[in-house]
Amino acid sequence: EESVRHHRRAAELAPKDATVLNDLGYCLVEAGQLQEAESTLLRAVELDPEDALARGNLEYCRRLMEEAESR
C-alpha cells in the first residue's frame, strides 16, 4: 500500500513519464489491483512504445487477469 501511494504521487507529478507510470503499474500488479495496473501500463506503453519493460509488464498483467478470469 505505501509503495503504491508513493508511486501514485510520483505519477501525479510526472503524468507523462512512461518510466514513472510503468513503476506505478507494476506496483499495482503486485498489490493485486490488476484493472488499474493494466490501464496504467497501457498509458506507459502508449507514451513510450519502445519500452520493453513496460510492454513486458503489461503482458504479465494481462496474463494474470486471464488466469483470474479462468478460476
Q: Can you walk through the features of this model?
A:
Helices cover 80% and strands 0% of the residues. The chain has helices at 2-13, 18-30, 34-47, 52-69. Helix 1 packs antiparallel against helix 2 (18-30) and helix 3 runs antiparallel to helix 4 (52-69). The N and C termini lie far apart (25 Å). It has 71 residues and is mainly α. It is flat and about 35 Å long. It contains four helices and no strands.
Give a quick set of tags describing it.
mainly alpha; 71 residues; 4 helices
Write the layout of secondary structure elements.
Blueprint: H1 2-13, H2 18-30, H3 34-47, H4 52-69
Helix pairs in contact: 1-2, 2-3, 2-4, 3-4
Give a quick rundown of the structure.
This protein has 71 residues and is mainly alpha-helical.
Count of runs of 4 or more consecutive helical residues: 4
Largest sheet: none
Write down the secondary-structure element order: HHHH
- Describe the global form: flat
- Measured on Cα atoms, how large is the radius of gyration? 11 Å
Low-confidence blocks of residues: none
N- to C-terminal distance? 25 Å
What's the total number of strands? 0
Proportion in helices: over 70%
Mean pLDDT: 97
Computed structural class: mainly alpha
- How much of the sequence lies in strands comes to under 5%
